[in-house]
Amino acid sequence: MIVEDTMRTFLNRITARSATPALPSSRVEAGPCAECALVTCRAGMRSVVVALRCDAPEACRLRTLGLIEGAPVTVLDCRHGLLLEVRGARVAISSAIARLVNVRPLAA
Amino acid sequence: MTSLASSTSAVSSDLRVALIGNPNTGKSTLFNALTGLRQKVGNYAGVTVERVEGRYRRPAGGEVTLIDLPGTYSLTALSPDEEIALAVLLGQEEDVPRPDVVVVIADALHLERNLFLASQVIGLGLPTVMALNQFDAAEAAGIAIDVPALIAALGIAVIPTVATRGDGLDALRRAIDQARSFPPADLRLPLGEPITAALAPLVAKLEASGLEAPAAHMQALRLLAVPSPEPHLRSVPGVPEAVETARAAVAAAGRDPYRLEAEVRYAWIDEVVRGAVARERPAGRTMSDRLDGVLLHRVWGPVVFLTLLGLVFQAVFAWATPLMDGIESAVSAVGTWVSGAMPDGLLRGLLVEGVIGGAASVLVFLPQIAILFLLLGILEDSGYMARAALLMDRLMRAVGLPGRSVIPLISGYACAVPAIMSTRTIADPKDRLATILVLPLTSCSARLPVYTLLIGAFVPATLVGGVFDLRGVTLFSMYAIGTVMALVMAWVFRRTLLKGPVRPLILELPPYRLPRVRNLLLTVWHRVRLFLQRAGTVILALSVVLWALATWPRTAVSPELPPAAAAEAQLEGSALGHVGKALEPLVRPLGFDWKIGVSIAASFAAREVFVTTMGTIYGVSDPDAESGSLREALISARDPDTGTPAYGALTAVGLMVFYVFALMCMSTVAITVRETGGGMVGAKWAAIQFAYMLVLAWVAAYVVRVVGLANGWGV
Questions:
Q1: Angstroms from A92 CA to nearest CA on chain B
Q2: E strand or H helix at B424
Q3: Per residue in B620-678, pLDDT tens?
């Protein structure tokens, strides 16, 4: 418990400064109607999957992990590919895959 | 393994139980908790997927054989692991009887995603029990699961467990015992009349091929989503065509056939979760979120990763050394005792130099294997390995390898044997094979005595740029050359022999957890035992063969010769000596003579043998890489025809470059055979590996020779 509290304090101090890095201009702001590639979404953005345009094996695997058409997804981090929250689990996908996933961002 | 496979079905009080679940659900912990040390690890026939089985006694008598299937997110069969899991459950796997009961282990923290696999397994119609693991963690996170409601929705027994504490295990054992006495769950997902009609011909075809009705329905839905049916269904007449027809019919009914299964299953899962799971408080920022803020940081992430890698490398390289020295001393003491207890002769030579020497060659690897797998186990079980794979993915994919390859490659700097064994964490077969083929190019610790001897003898201690010692620069260059060539050859293999698309990264990041000591120790024990059983026997046999080649035919030597000279004469007259003389025309263009040829041939046993063989040839008793006497002997060696120095800096560099690239290590060859499929398949890949590295070594050493002579760098 003491170790956990100490780590929590330490991490809070470090991560308080590591805010979402400056975004490239291509990243979209949240908008309820725009459809875009998942790779353009910024960290913290929630969206709904519209279409998976990747190859069949990748699409099959993404759907198995819960990334199906109509499912909500949250971008947690975009520093190394994309880190997503899907149905409560954290899934990392490469930017190459994220370019082939169309989503509809939800209003913040 | 076949003895395990055939034992249980004939005895009615025995059960065969398959354990299946998503990765990171605590499946291994549960398996270890149920079976303890009563486990066997091997391979499924024809593939490098591990087959792990264990046993425990049933409460009412008899034994349960528990088969720990590979962790999988679904029965989609897109990878060898998933194909094996499905084949075992369908009774299609050679030498593995169909299980009597299936235990699906689900993570209570991520029940939604886990229910995808669970629904597929239940749909197969086998008696099934769910172990709802990490129940305590779910409660702590504010997730309330109504277990009776879940039981009602799934139609199977659901047992909350905390495998790390052993909670729920007795109830789980009782549920497994009683599973066959309950009617099988009839989990038919609501498809609607048009879709049911569209799938009916495919279901009929699958039933005609031998599948029972529930499994045929589950398979029909699953086959729509996968790119192609698994191997045993592809060969059934009419199935591939029936799948295509079903897809067209489903599309005509207004649904996308490739999305249908996922949509239908997750719609059902959403309904189940609505009725059985309640979140008592919103999910907040977890410890894993905070740790990822640092460990996936653009700067701190790679810094932490390189630090941890350095620690792994240091541990395998340095911490293992005292243990390895201890083993060598102990075996040497045994050899000395045997030498003293037996009369001089060939039998003593066989025992001491062949068998005991060979045993030393095997046992000396154990500390490195144990330490490496202990550390890798800590990284894997803590959840950090997935982050490391993510950090390195982009860099490694530039040469056609996945991010996970970086750990085995770095481990290869210590020793290729455990490093090749650790490639089992790489899921894609071509990625794994490419990593194994190039891994020995990273300069392992066994090459260091060769480098140390030659650099010490022939590279002057001058300064480069006024700062760096030329000897240190030379040593670093050898490591750099090997590393660069490993990446180059990976790129070449992924575009030629192992051509195929580089699968993009899709990876679940598990929450961070404290590794379980018991799991780690069991993993290390299994790896050590596997090494001793499979590679150890081959290495020992080859040691005896090499001893025999260095011993026969016997040469009559004058009794007046000192022992060192007599040993040199014996070696020259032996089969190995003749091999060296036969090799001389091949190595002469590289600037090597028959003595280096013999030493290279002998060093196939282990690279360090080069030093001891050269010591024998030059009559140096008890030689080692640091010994001045062997260096002096090499420096003062003369060409018998011209009287000029036999060796110089150019020869030394050429020889070191040769050793950077050549696969002079029978242990590595043996483990490659094992890890690339065993039998003829494994022998083929090991032969390819040996051949391409030998060609690289020869060409590189020749280029060094030609360029060096052209630039007047001496001999």
A1: 5
A2: none
A3: 544 555 555 677 778 887 776 777 787 888 999 999 999 999 998 888 998 899 888 88
> CB distance B293–A15 less than 8 Å?
yes
Q: CA of B110, closest CA in chain A: separation in Å? A: 6
Residue B6 has pLDDT above 50, yes or no: no
Count the residues in chain B: 715
**Residue-wise DSSP of A27-56:** SBPP-SS--EEGGGBPTT-EEEEEEE-S-H
Helix-, strand-, coil-residue percentages of chain A, each rounded to 5: 30, 30, 40
User: How far is residue B359 CA from its own chain's centroid?
Assistant: 23
Interchain contact, B508 vs A90, CB within 8 Å: yes
Name the band, by pLDDT with cuts 50, 70 and 90, for residue A93.
very high
pTM attached to this predicted model: 0.79
- High-pLDDT (> 70) share of chain B, %: 91
Phi, psi of B59 (to 5 degrees): -55, -35
Contact A14 B293 (CB under 8 A): yes
- Nearest by CB to residue A97, choosing from B116, B290, B506, is B506
Q: How confident is the model at residue B121 (pLDDT cuts 50, 70, 90)?
A: very high
The residue that leads in pLDDT, B377 or B683, is: B683
Pair B42, B92: CB distance under 8 Å: no
Could you report the per-residue pLDDT of B87-105, keeping only the tens digit for each?
Answer: 899 888 878 889 999 999 9
The number of residues in chain A equals 108
Contact between B422 and B442 under an 8 Å Cβ cutoff? The reply is no
Q: Please give the mean pLDDT across all residues of chain B.
A: 84
Q: Tell me yes or no: is domain B2-181 CATH 3.40.50.300.
A: yes
Chain A contact set for B270 (CB, 8 A)? none
In chain B, residues with a C-beta closer than 8 Å to the C-beta of A77 are 292, 296
Put simply, the answer to whether A70 touches B394 (Cβ < 8 Å) is no
CATH 3.40.50.300 residue window(s) in chain B: 2-181
Report the C-alpha gap between B62 and B100 in whole angstroms: 14
Q: Lowest mean pLDDT: which of B202-216, B240-254, B451-465?
A: B451-465
Residues of B in Cβ contact (< 8 Å) with A96:
504
Set of chain B residues whose Cβ sits within 8 Å of the Cβ of A70: 263
Note whether B654 and B705 are within 8 A (CB). yes
Q: How far is CA B560 from the centre of its chain?
A: 53
Interchain proximity A64–B74, CB inside 8 Å:
yes
* Domain A24-105, CATH number (from 2.60.40.10, 1.20.200.10, 3.40.50.300, 2.30.30.90): 2.30.30.90
The owner of tokens 């792994």 is B312
For B78, B413, B517, B689, the CA distances from B451, given in Å and listed in that order, are 45, 14, 39, 23
Residue B268 pLDDT: 94
**Residue contact B391–A18, C-beta within 8 A:** no
A12: closest chain B residue by CA: B290
**Contact A88/B113, CB-based, under 8 Å?**
yes
Q: Which of B554-563, B615-624, B671-680 has the least mean pLDDT?
A: B615-624
The number of C-beta contacts closer than 8 angstroms across A and B is 131
Residue contact B301–A91, C-beta within 8 A = no
What is the C-alpha separation between B150 and B171, in angstroms, rounded? 17
Domain map of chain A by residue range? 24-105
